[in-house]
Amino acid sequence: MHDQVREYYGKVIQKTEDLQTNACCLDIELPDYVREALGKVHEEVQRRYYGCGLVMPQCLEGMRILDLGCGA
Fold it and tell me: Would the pTM of this model clear 0.70, i.e. be above it?
């Protein structure tokens, strides 16, 4: 299973349109502060971002972040 997931996310998917599910796709328009933050991310990283796990509270200053992500 691990190899299949690596193959899917590493080789099959090259852009958001390649996803075979919409589970990770956002249906909302991103707030300005999120678009501004994403604008600072390298374009290659943006191309490989599929919307999973986008959690950006309006106020990050002084907050602690606990990342429980998949480790990809």
Answer: no
